[in-house]
Design a protein that fits this description.
Layout lengths: L1 H4 L8 H15 L2 H9 L6 H23 L5 E3 L3 H12 L4 H19 L3 H8 L2 H22 L4 E3 L9 E3 L11 H18 L5 H12 L36 H30 L12 H18 L4 E3 L3 H6 L5 H21 L4 H15 L11 H17 L2 H18 L8 H18 L1
Helix pairs in contact: 2-14, 3-4, 4-12, 4-14, 6-11, 6-12, 8-11, 8-15, 8-16, 8-17, 9-10, 9-15, 10-15, 11-17, 11-18, 16-17, 17-18
Length: about 450
């Protein structure tokens, strides 16, 4: 096993990989319950979607671990599940069966791109400073997720709707952070911080366990058995349909718009997560690329296609993978552990649900500390670089989207270089991607 996964060669250990996998799983286990909550609003069976979520996540993790040998986990993505329900089904008028067909086509498009030479050229064309900005932006993004999960920061409105969201911390009533999930999260944050300062191995994992135990007398750690029969999967498995898909208002153009939107979001959320997280952990090679990253994209695309068949929206690489990497995981064995735990969740979902989000939120907040160091490598004294980098960093958490952050960075970088008469300094692919992002923003929000 050590030879196959190159555990020792990458400076890791069997223990670090197992611990990293467990931490990653519990950091993203919320998707098991949140994804069905979104998709069931479109008319899908809640329990069937839960099973599809676990199975597609497990497949994505297994493929990532075996094909790419990198410590990244996959599952149906947040944001994309909301886009599926609120925009694709409610807004554009597709049935959920047609929506799954759209997801399948976007996954096939992603797969075609990833197995072609275009994939490596896209990653290589991203300027080093923007790669550093992506890493820092993801750090703030995942910290933001942690603050939200802990109820330390609250949102007014739906963060996924077309009107955006207003973030607010109620400074007038400090009692809001001195009870309930917020208090438990603050306790966990202090525990993990102290353990890290003492350089305790497995600090994040230990912190999650201790915080979960503390949550028992607080009434936040609960076990609510809700057995699920595998037969219910038949409610969504193989139900995607192309029947009448071009008869929806907008016809072929609406279909193409939906497919491209899913593709761009999935592709650049994944690329951003892989590059940004790996960069902060020192996993990139001398050329700034992640060894095995190309195969991780292939795994992502296959998982998206399979997920559509089982009955869930787009599968993507989770930024919460950074929690396992922070624990020392460096190989695909970590991903396999996550995959096994997702499979077990098909039968023991209530066990996974025992760990409250307030217990895993501190891990997400702490990871931001590790990833924000990427900002130190940006040439802040050069406004041609600093402004696109800044927009990349701040847009990710504020727009709640890694893809949108990358899009803002690419577009502003291209425009500034053109205005400065430095057209040739920008790789042609960055221009193409900037136009694609601009078109996506226009089609999605106009």
């Amino acid at each position: 096993m050590d030879k196959f996964f190159k555990i020792s060669e990458r400076g890791s250990s069997f223990r670090a990989e197992i611990m990293g996998g467990i931490v990653t799983f519990f950091s993203m286990a919320y998707i098991i319950f949140v994804n069905p909550n979104y998709l069931s609003q479109a008319g899908m069976n809640w329990h069937a979607v839960m099973l599809a979520t676990c199975i597609s996540a497990a497949l994505g993790c297994f493929l990532t671990g075996m094909l790419a040998n990198v410590p990244f986990a996959q599952a149906p993505g947040m944001g994309l599940n909301a886009f599926f329900t609120y925009t694709l089904c409610f807004g554009m008028g597709y049935t959920w069966q047609q929506g799954l067909a759209v997801v399948l086509v976007s996954g096939i498009l992603f797969l075609v791109i990833t197995v072609s030479p275009i994939r490596s050229k896209i990653i290589a064309s991203i300027p080093a400073d923007l790669k550093a900005a992506i890493s820092a932006g993801i750090g703030l993004f995942i910290t933001f997720i942690g603050l939200l999960n802990a109820d330390i920061v609250t949102l007014f409105g739906n963060v996924y709707d077309d009107t955006g969201a207003l973030v607010s911390t109620d400074y007038s009533d400090m009692g809001n952070i001195l009870h309930g999930p917020a208090l438990l999260a603050l306790i966990g944050l202090i525990i993990i911080a102290i353990l890290l300062c003492y350089k305790v191995k497995g600090a994040i994992f230990i912190g999650i366990i201790i915080t979960t135990i503390i949550g028992i007398p607080m009434g936040l750690t609960q076990y609510n058995p809700d057995p699920v029969s595998l037969s219910v999967l038949g409610e969504t498995f193989g139900k995607l349909s192309f029947n009448g898909i071009f008869e929806v208002q907008g016809g072929v153009l609406a279909f193409i718009t939906a497919v491209i939107t899913f593709f761009i979001c999935d592709c650049f959320d994944t690329v951003g997560t892989l590059i940004g997280t790996a960069r902060s952990a020192g996993m990139l090679d001398k050329n700034g690329n992640l060894p095995g990253g190309d195969r991780a994209l292939i795994a992502d695309a296959i998982a998206t296609c399979t997920g559509a068949i089982f009955g869930t929206s787009t599968v993507t690489t989770f930024v919460e993978s950074s929690t396992g990497i922070a624990e020392g995981a460096r190989t695909g064995l970590c991903s396999l552990v996550v995959g096994v735990l997702f499979l077990l969740s098909c039968f023991f979902a209530p066990v996974a649900g025992m760990v409250p989000s307030a217990a895993t939120a501190p891990a997400l907040i702490i990871v931001g500390v590790f990833m924000l160091k990427g900002a130190a490598d940006i040439a802040w004294d050069d406004m041609e670089i600093a402004i696109p980098a800044f927009l990349t960093i701040v847009t990710m958490p504020f727009a709640y989207s890694i893809g949108d952050g990358i899009g803002f960075g690419f577009i502003s970088y291209s425009i500034i270089k053109i205005a400065r008469g430095k057209v040739k300094e920008v790789p042609i692919l960055i221009y193409i991607l900037s136009i694609a992002f601009a078109a996506m923003f226009a089609l999605t929000y106009l």
